[in-house]
Design brief:
By secondary structure, this protein is mainly α. Helices cover 82% and strands 0% of the residues. The two termini are 15 Å apart. The relative contact order is 0.12.
């Protein structure tokens, strides 16, 4: 194990120990009592939070991956810079400002929250899709053409399998970011666990704050784990080893 990997392992272990100690301390201090006292309220907010994340992330994936593939085609390569710079510009706008703009246009409630989260999820998926496809070695594509592969065969048999690691990493980043950002939906009446988080902040009540914030954190960690497991099934061993060697 080289020095970097050893240091990374030590840091992960230390953070894991500190996280477990925090959970044990906060549980024994009764900071999650609200979840046990009002399980129906917690479940309702949790479902709202999950729906916002699933819907906005699904829409972002449905748009970003095809768009990323499109702008890497030779015919549309000229507009790649325009699409990427537009997405980059959108990402520089603070999430609160996007929520405010969505609220101005769509009013308050669930829809503007989902729309704002959808916009905020586009760039990580789009950028990683383009980067993953563009990073494929030209020799590999030339070999496929030499074997008589048609463009759609090159896309589905060469480009997408080799770019899958990068694309899934972008999706994982977007989903985890979305779970945390969805707490801001409270500000536009979108509901979710942000209701308890902001109530705790306004009332200076740690029970409300942690009963909302900790489930959001655990949900983000769980989503990250599930997506990593999916990666291990979807991405071939050879591609993973190649990416690790390049890294």
């Amino acid at each position: 194990m080289n020095r970097k990997k050893l240091l990374a392992t030590l840091l992960k272990t230390l953070l894991s120990i500190l996280t477990v100690l925090f959970f044990v301390w906060s549980y024994r201090s009764g900071y999650y009592q609200l979840i046990f006292d009002d399980p129906e309220g917690f479940w309702y907010l949790f479902q709202q939070h999950l729906k916002m994340v699933l819907l906005s992330s699904s829409l972002a994936i449905a748009l970003s991956v095809p768009l990323g593939i499109l702008v890497t085609r030779p015919k549309f390569k000229k507009i790649q810079w325009l699409i990427m710079n537009t997405a980059n510009l959108g990402q520089t706008i603070p999430s609160l400002a996007i929520l405010a703009l969505a609220m101005t246009w769509m009013g308050i409630g669930f829809k503007p929250a989902v729309f704002a989260l959808f916009l905020y999820s586009l760039l990580p998926i789009l950028r990683n899709t383009v980067a993953g496809i563009d990073s494929i070695k030209p020799e590999l594509l030339d070999a496929a053409r030499g074997m008589g592969y048609k463009p759609y065969q090159i896309l589905f048999k060469i480009e997408l399998p080799n770019a899958a690691f990068s694309i899934l990493a972008g999706i994982r980043t977007a989903v985890v970011l979305n779970i945390g950002t969805a707490a801001l939906a409270y500000l536009v009446g979108g509901g979710g666990l942000g209701d308890w988080i902001f109530t705790g902040i306004m009332m200076r009540d740690n029970i409300y704050l942690l009963s909302g914030a900790v489930p959001v954190t655990l949900l983000a960690l769980f989503a990250d784990l599930i997506l990593r497991i999916i990666e291990s099934f979807v991405i071939s061993k050879g591609v993973r080893q190649s990416v690790e060697a390049d890294g």
